[in-house]
Specification:
The protein has 15 helices and 21 strands. The longest helix has 16 residues. Helix 4 packs across helix 7. The chain folds into two domains: 257 residues, Conserved hypothetical protein from pyrococcus furiosus pfu- 392566-001, ParB domain (Alpha-Beta Complex), CATH 3.90.1530; 136 residues, Conserved hypothetical protein from pyrococcus furiosus pfu- 392566-001, domain 2 (2-Layer Sandwich). With 428 residues, it is α+β, with helices and mostly antiparallel strands. This is DUF1015 domain-containing protein. InterPro entries: UCP033563 (IPR008323).
């Protein structure tokens, strides 16, 4: 099944500055203002490589990478290693930790059933990542994937290996502490590889980058750069985490509707009565508590917010409704909260089809509850749907069935930092 191996990681040296000034969040959640702030704090911040700007951004990133490798700002480890990675954080008032390890994983087509996706992707993001990685020959951020190990043999091993002071540690502006331990023991690396021989991997975050890695592998084969399985271009950098790790946290991603001012809310709710129990005029202060309550009971509920000081709760009554409209999809897919909203309300009632959603014509997303409320109140959006999170086990079942959830169905928290370790897969 999954082929897992160590690699000679590229890491910042002391010459670059402190590690807290050199790392950044994933490129796709960073504004231009944030980007400038990172560079103002330290011009060696990895954002210069991961999110380059200018007339020829990808070429500039390649030049910067080569310069930093030449002048000692970056250094490639002499030996292949695994990199144990831990995040310590607080989510909804509860202290937590999540630990996995960063390695290389052999790129496999989805049809092989070894690496399984769970979400749809956008072409624009894949083109950007393809151009950047082909220009630099380097992966600056790791894909986040899960694996099933009911005995937790791998987690126990990496816990033992990280029972010492970390090789790198810092706390970011979001109060998340990141720790990295480097493991160069060849026997340990081989042992981990053997443990994954019978496992599948489930992409948690990084679908665009994984599909990019497939496209890069194919392009390098066509160019004659990759001639055998041992070439680094056959592999992609991943952080692997036990799917049953108690520290896994998934946040909901709320839906915001724009440019639909003519939607009559009473009429919308009347049409929703075909499928849902409708509870109107609930005080806004009770929203999170009510959603939490229904989530704990296994109900399929979400809130419709239109801008006042109350909201309407919609709870699915007709459990077979999605299946009737999507007969080719599995029960696991049809029972997802996001499938219920997208199929019954957005598509069937509001007429926002899949192409519209893919291009985000009338639909946008946020994981921040306050934004889902504030952006309706200030008129940026017409109304919003406030969601419960997708369960981790639901993600695994849908992926195992070869299906993909609607885009932005999950938000694993916290995001992995970029810059602790990088993978140079091609010499230019």
């Amino acid at each position: 099944m999954a082929t897992v191996k160590g690699f000679r990681g590229v890491r910042f040296t002391e010459k670059a500055g402190t590690i807290a000034e050199l790392c950044c969040p994933p490129y796709d959640i960073i504004s231009e203002e944030q980007r400038q702030n990172y560079l103002a704090q330290n011009p060696h911040n990895v954002i210069r490589l991961e999110l380059p700007r200018g007339e020829h951004p990808y070429e500039e990133a390649a030049k910067t990478l080569q310069t930093w490798l030449s002048n000692g700002v970056l250094s490639q480890d002499e030996k292949e290693g695994l990199y144990i990675y831990e995040e310590e954080f607080t989510a909804r008032g509860v202290p937590n930790k999540i630990k996995g390890f960063i390695c290389l994983v052999k790129v496999e087509d989805f049809s092989k059933g070894v690496v399984l996706p769970h979400e749809e992707t956008l072409s624009k993001a894949k083109t950007d990542r393809f151009n950047l990685q082909m220009a630099t020959g380097c992966q600056f951020s790791q894909i986040y994937s899960l694996y099933i190990d009911h005995e937790h043999t791998t987690l126990s091993l990496i816990d033992a290996l990280s029972d010492r002071e970390p090789d790198a540690v810092f706390t970011d502006e979001g109060d998340v502490t990141h720790r990295l331990w480097c493991v160069y023991d060849e026997d340990v690396i081989a042992q981990v590889g053997q443990q994954f021989a019978g496992r599948k991997l489930y992409i948690a975050d990084g679908h665009h980058r994984y599909e990019t890695s497939i496209n890069i592998r194919n392009a390098l084969r066509e160019k004659g750069v990759i001639t055998d399985d041992s070439h680094p271009g056959n592999y992609v950098m991943m952080m692997l985490c036990d799917m049953e790790h108690p520290g896994l946290v998934v946040f909901p991603t709320h839906r915001l509707i724009r440019d639909m001012p003519d939607v009559d809310i009473p009429d919308l709710l009347k049409k929703c009565e075909e499928f849902f129990d409708i509870t109107p005029a609930l005080p806004l202060s009770s929203l999170q508590e009510k959603l939490d309550e229904d989530y704990a009971q296994g109900k399929k509920s979400f809130a419709l917010y239109t801008g006042s000081q109350d909201y309407t709760l919609l709870t699915l009554r007709d459990l077979g409704a999605v299946k009737r409209l999507e007969p080719k999809m599995s029960d696991d897919y049809c029972n997802l909260d996001v499938s219920v909203l997208h199929t019954l309300v957005l598509e069937h009632i509001l007429g926002i089809d899949k192409e519209n959603m893919m291009n985000q014509v009338n639909l946008n997303y946020t994981r921040v509850l306050e934004e889902a409320i504030d952006k309706v109140q200030d008129g940026t959006y017409n109304f919003s749907f406030i969601m419960n999170p997708t369960k981790v086990e639901e993600i695994g079942r849908v992926a195992e069935g070869g299906e993909k959830m609607p885009q932005k169905s999950t938000y694993f928290y916290p995001k992995l930092t970029t810059g602790l370790v990088m993978n140079k897969f091609m010499d230019l």
